[in-house]
Design goal:
The structure holds two protein chains of two kinds. By secondary structure, chain A is an alpha/beta fold. Helix content of chain A is 50%, strand content 14%. Chain A is built from twelve helices and nine strands. In chain A, helix 10 (217-226) links the parallel strand 8 (208-211) and strand 9 (229-232). Chain A is globular. By secondary structure, chain B is α/β, with parallel strands linked by helices. Chain B is built from 17 helices and 14 strands. In chain B, the strands form three sheets. A six-stranded mixed sheet of chain B has the order 3-4-14-9-10-13, with helices on both faces. In chain B, strands 1-2-12-11 form a four-stranded antiparallel sheet. Chain B has a four-stranded parallel sheet with strand order 7-6-5-8, with helices on both faces. In chain B, helix 12 (251-257) links the parallel strand 9 (242-246) and strand 10. In chain B, helix 4 (78-84) packs across helix 16 (365-378) and helix 11 (223-236) crosses helix 12. The chains are: A alpha/beta, B alpha/beta. At the A-B interface, helix 3, helix 5 and strand 6 of A face strand 2, helix 2, helix 9 and strand 11 of B.
């Protein structure tokens, strides 16, 4: 059983929901990344999505694009991001790490080399935003053979056939994009999400995390009622970009702890 | 019209790309986030059902004839040919189209699809502004809302085109992220589309992007080559020995190449922008100097650094200043059906001036790259050989750039 599945199963058994923060590796500097990951865990993160910077993050809003731009000013490469995971693992062997990014840096490194390096470093999953299932069967095979989970996005507009296709090659969890648009935008339609998630869970047989649009404890709590996991990204990155260097860690910790507390106030039916 | 019977090799041709999932060999495809898939599926299904429908074809042809002014003529550039000292150079005059370039052919087609889908709002990305102007033009003609995304650097460099779009009723949104040029405008337009997909149609300006765009844009632009196929026999009694076109994203080149793919005796030559020279690294020659990767929804040749980040491009012509290229060109390169070469800024400017002075035609700087290569190539050929150049646009938009290069201030 993968570290992601173990983590999500244990939470489920305890009647708790997973909190999955997203941060971009190398933002604002690679030296911040590993301490930031430990801080996220201290604040209650169950899984960390670690963004791999890309010059053209088409599916992300301006906040995450700016994070990528800051990291790329320092020339942060995929290999360096993987090295950060290895460093994180020297002090933490329990919190799963998912590498999230775009196809081109992975293809530039080579899919085989990437899968081997990510696995050796102790990464647990990969989410490639611009690899929909029909373009990633080979990739998924290679990455899963290296022992990594392949996580896919699903959207409110995904058809049943596509949801099943994701179920066939995906593993770990599903990242359900809760609204139309890019990361960091607008408000979530909780009612629509709550209707959709049980259907997806049934069709795919994987836990469902929800993201895109989570801004505070209230929205995280509302999603925690219906989802297995809550993903929060842009709001954390805003905190990072608005903090002086020496206050990044404490401020992010305060923000995420607040969201953890709100999520844990959800009463889960037995 | 004087359409001739197609030769036997057309029916014998096995070329039938893209496949049903939008691939040209290993290139093309649909590399987008899940959030865009439903919109692309809807577009693909609509386009597939419309493209051969007689009423749709008839309306498209009517618009091309009466609004654009097609067919565009082919002109024998005798003085340029004499100056080159070899093969005869013919120019396909896309510069004479309404709005001054080939871009309008595709925009009319996509706007008709948008109208059919009941989308009242169109968006576009633009670099130099030509595709933005074409989109604003058709939006005005059809009474649609139009928003054009343009890198803030390009907004500064192309003030006249920004004003043209505004005159036509479009909203121009300067894009401040990334390198603030065409590729970032494309990213931003995609974001608008994914957010407003219910009422919005994204009119992509070139043969790139996710399936079905490369196919759809090629189909609409292939009117260029289809006309050449009957115009050349009318003029010279045969097809040309080579067809030459500039390649940025590659829509004017695909438009003139595509109908000639089944003609093995017609060489297809794409001319990329070598900028300051390929060896300087400051160029836009994705096919000549890039390597395959994934950007903007498709797999194709890209200009990227060693860690897979897209790098900034350079060309004197804003329309060629793009780090990718249409996936069908990538395939035509790999399978050897088309050849790709590069012309630098100086060579393109020299060809620009020659075309002005010898033929009384002010070509776009983009098209000047194709003219430059044609003259170079013609020099080594016999006087009976025939080169057909796609003169994809006129150069009025480039007055400031050329004047500046010549040390002149208005």
């Amino acid at each position: 059983m993968s570290r992601i599945t173990q983590t999500l199963s244990a939470l489920d058994a305890a009647g708790r929901k997973a909190l999955i923060p997203f941060v971009t590796a190398g933002d604002p500097d690679l030296s911040v990344t590993v301490p930031l990951m430990h801080t996220l865990v201290e604040a209650g993160a169950d899984i960390i999505e670690l963004g791999v910077p890309f010059s053209d993050p088409m599916a992300d809003g301006p906040t995450i694009q700016r994070a990528s731009e800051r990291a790329l000013l320092k020339k942060v490469s995929l290999r360096q991001v993987i090295a950060a995971v290895a460093e994180f693992r020297t002090r933490n062997t329990t919190t799963p790490v998912v590498l999230m990014g775009y196809a081109n840096p992975i293809e530039a490194m080579g899919v085989d080399a990437f899968a081997d390096a990510a696995s050796a470093a102790g990464a647990d999953g990969v989410l490639v935003v611009d690899y929909p299932p029909e373009e990633s069967r080979e990739f998924a095979k290679v990455v899963r053979a290296a022992g990594l989970d392949v996580i896919f996005l699903l959207a409110p507009t995904s058809t049943d056939a596509r949801i099943r296709a994701v179920g066939e090659i995906g593993s770990g969890y599903i990242y359900y994009v809760s609204l139309k648009g890019v990361t960091g935008a607008g408000h979530i339609d909780i009612d629509a999400v709550s209707k959709r998630i049980p259907l997806i869970r049934d069709m795919v047989g994987l836990p469902v995390g929800v993201g895109f649009g989570v801004r505070d404890g209230a929205s995280a709590k509302a999603l925690a009622v219906v989802a297995d996991a809550v993903v929060i990204g842009s709001r954390i990155i805003e905190e990072i970009e608005n903090s002086p260097a020496d206050e990044i860690l404490p401020r992010v910790k305060t923000l995420l702890s607040g969201i953890r507390t709100a999520m844990d106030s959800v009463e889960v039916a037995a | 019209m004087g359409k001739l019977d197609l030769p036997a090799e057309v029916s014998a041709s096995a070329y039938n790309l893209p496949d049903t999932t939008g691939h040209f060999g290993p290139y093309g495809g649909t590399f987008v986030a899940e959030t865009l898939i439903a919109a692309l599926d809807e577009l693909r299904d609509t386009y597939e059902s419309l493209k051969d429908e007689p009423a749709f074809r008839a309306e498209f042809e009517y618009e091309l004839k009466h609004y654009v002014g097609r067919p565009s003529p082919i002109f024998h550039a005798r003085r340029l040919s004499d100056a080159a000292g070899g093969a005869q150079i013919y120019l396909k005059r896309e510069d004479l189209n309404h709005t001054g370039a080939h871009k309008i052919n595709n925009v009319i087609g996509q706007a008709m699809v948008a109208k059919h889908m009941g989308k009242p709002r169109v968006i576009a990305e633009t670099g130099a502004g030509q595709h933005g102007v074409a989109t604003a033009t058709i939006a005005a003609r059809l009474g649609m809302e139009c928003v054009v995304y343009m890198g803030s650097e390009d907004v500064k460099r192309q003030a006249a085109n920004v004003y043209r779009m505004k005159l036509l009723g479009a909203t121009v949104v300067p894009v401040e992220c990334g390198s603030k040029t065409l590729k970032d405008a494309l990213n931003e337009a995609m974001r608008d589309w994914v957010t407003n997909v219910a009422n919005t149609f994204y009119i992509i300006g070139t043969v790139a992007g996710p399936h079905p765009y490369p196919m759809m844009v090629r189909d609409f632009q292939s009117v260029i080559g289809e006309e050449c196929k009957w115009q050349m026999p009318e003029m010279i009694g045969r097809q040309p020995d080579a067809v030459i076109a500039c390649v940025g994203g590659g829509s004017n080149a695909m438009g003139i190449f595509y109908p000639y793919i089944p003609y093995p005796d017609v060489r297809l030559i794409g001319v990329e922008a070598a900028g300051h020279g390929i060896s300087t690294g400051m160029h836009s020659a994705s096919l000549c100097a890039g390597r395959p990767g994934v950007l903007h929804g498709n797999r194709t040749y890209l200009l990227q650094d060693e860690i897979g980040q897209i790098i900034e491009t350079h060309s004197v012509s804003a329309g060629l200043d793009y780090p990718g290229v249409g996936p069908e060109h990538a395939w035509l390169k790999d399978c050897g059906r088309a050849e790709y070469v590069a012309i630098d800024d100086e060579e393109a400017l020299a060809a620009f001036h020659k075309t002005c002075r010898m033929e009384g035609i002010i070509p776009a700087l983009e098209s000047s790259h194709a003219v430059a290569y044609a003259m170079k190539m013609a020099a080594g050929m016999s006087k009976d050989a025939v080169l057909l150049v796609n003169l994809s646009g006129r150069g009025d938009k480039d007055m400031h750039t050329v004047a500046e290069k010549s040390g002149i201030k208005f």
